[in-house]
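[worker-b] picked up task from shared queue
[worker-b] task type: protein-ligand structure
[worker-b] ligand name resolved to pyridoxal-5'-phosphate; SMILES cross-checked against name lookup, match
[worker-b] sequence length check passed
[worker-b] input payload:
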Amino acid sequence: MDDASHSFQEEGRPDWVEVDLPALVDNFRQVVRRVGEGVRVWPVVKANAYGLGALPVARALQRAGAAGFCVALVEEGEALRAGGVTAPLMLLSGPVAGNVGRVLRIGAEAFLITLDDALALAGALPAGQRLRVHLKVDTGMGRLGMDPEQVPQVLSVLDGLPGIKVAGIASHLAVADEVDNPGTLRQIERMKALLAHPEVVWRRLPVSMANSAGIMAFSEAHFQWVRPGIHLYGGSPFFPAASPAGWEPRPVVRWCTRVIQVRNMAAGTPLGYGHTVVLQRPSRIGQLPVGYADGYPRILSNRAEVIVGGRRVPVLGRVCMDLVTVDLTDCPDVGVGDEVVLLGGHGPLAISLQEMSAWMGTIPYEVLCRLGARVPRRYREFPVATGM
Ligand SMILES: *Cc1c(COP(=O)(O)O)cnc(C)c1O
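[worker-b] inference finished, payload out:
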């Protein structure tokens, strides 16, 4: 990728996302160190591993010792199985009754969100088959799942349904990214109260509550297993606040392209759709073959910067479907074929996920999930041992 002979004439369009698998695995190891021995780590690889590519990500994390993988959809689990991922799988999004055949075929466990789903599931399960479920309890997220008060009754109903094995209790944290928000401790207290209930305590069910923010900021939320997502992919869940000192993730993603055209333009020239910018000086204007169809959002029009020729330069005018215009006036040595970094590091410079999120008015999760399907992903693998 640093190959100078790699001109823009290479086959296909110069637009690619680099995923640094060793950095991803480092972030995973950071999670393992943070939760300590005895707490199992199930990386969340839903939504194609937040856009980075579920299969290469899961393969790397499986080799690094992931206990299992969480997905949102049964088809995401099927894709992992088709790609040879053998680790246990957990379906985070209910309901499951309508998909029970597919869930059983991939050998997944599933979050169970309602008693109704449990009853439908019991009716849909083929004779002799058994599904492991984790009761999804709403301890304060105000979203999916059952109330803690319902759990004793659900457990007693499920005791009479031999096809459904209750394998655990899970909940999700709403405000763990705000480390001073008392809501997280309240959720943990609610979970502990539930676990102390006489109908629950003797079952000794494994519990999971923590996402990335819960893992890093609340050791009380670790329980028996944790579900890290964004931290693995190099994003801070705490944005716009900083990560707790010492627990910043390593960046994992770089998004690159190359200059495909440079033109000298006179002062006074209007640029692009809507003529939203008029050049104030004689300028060198570059075109990049990337646009909102690739997930470079239109809201970055006249707002973002890119890195090229060892400096940051501004995006000018509207971001189009397939093109972005940049101001190269201050980098006279930059020409056609030169590499441009849209996101990620370049020597001492970087456009972080957090910075791009701020430009977009969103969070790192959405920046990654919007990376376009048509942008090829390239994987930086572990260096191969030379045997010396
Ligand atoms: C997406 C998701 C996670 C991971 O959250 P991060 O903030 O990315 O670590 C964990 N648990 C559930 C239920 C999720 O949906």
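[worker-b] attaching auto-annotations
[worker-b] The radius of gyration is 24 Å.
[worker-b] releasing lock
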